[in-house]
Specification:
Helix content is about 40%, strand content about 20%. It is built from ten helices and nine strands. The termini are far apart. The protein has a six-stranded parallel beta sheet with strand order 1-4-3-2-5-6, with helices on both faces. Strands 7-8-9 form a three-stranded antiparallel beta sheet, with helices on one face. By secondary structure, it is an alpha/beta fold. The longest helix has 16 residues, at about 125-140. Bound molecules: pantoate. The site of pantoate has 10 residues, from strand 2 and helix 6.
Amino acid sequence: MDQIHDIAALRRCVAGWRRAGLKVGLVPTMGNLHEGHLQLVRRARARCDRVVVSVFVNPTQFGPNEDFARYPRTLEQDAARLRQVDADLLFVPAVDAVYPHGIEVLTRVSVPVVTEPLEGEFRPGHFDGVASVVAILLNLVQPDVAVFGQKDYQQLLVVRRMVADLHLPVEIVGEPTQREPDGLALSSRNQYLNAEERSIAPGLHRCLVAVGERLRNGERDFGHLEAEAVKVLKNQGFKPQYLRICGPDLGAPPVSDGEWVVLVAAYLGATRLIDNLLIKI
Ligand code: PAF
């Protein structure tokens, strides 16, 4: 597996693959790779002849009081893991290579509507940073396929919408969330949890499953379900920011049978966790 920091070298490498008629996949990450990321790479591997993984801790998607500075940077370990799943190229650009004119004057991609609720309410500007950097990464690598985790459900919708609106010639693939045996969704931020918090954390998934069961049993008072679930989380020690039952596009939830997504964000101590569950009847 080659490791490239330089944009011109990346472009040369991918251009060679394209001339040879090879199908190229991209897995954009912020590094600190865990089994969830490796699953994204396996998915790209199954779909493509060559797989590029980018590791870039993107400053424009972190708010001023968020964890950009302390976000875990573990490049050597990441490279070793990527070799095990047969990635072809690890692309690790520097911040000033991605943003040569600086962050303040960056041309930004802003996706309306789908960015507004949920994460958009609690992390203003976050999705502008995500959409902008994903647009840049897609332009740099020019992959045929790009794979994203469904754990960041709203992010996946934002990326799909941006790609559709900008007519970017790439297929976006969503990969189901990987979980610990006790249900906790894999996330780089899980390592911030102390032992007590770690023992409480699977309650988040359990709570989503319980809401799903009640939807399956025919309950449709969404506001009541949400309020009760928030109460349960608070009793367990979480500080929930939102727990919302939506339609799959984050619009109003269907009142008869159909498909719902239940999304949650909650603090456990100083760590912010998000998760979601898709329910189909
Ligand atoms: O999901 C992530 O790790 C990031 O938001 C992404 C898509 C790599 C953009 O920085």
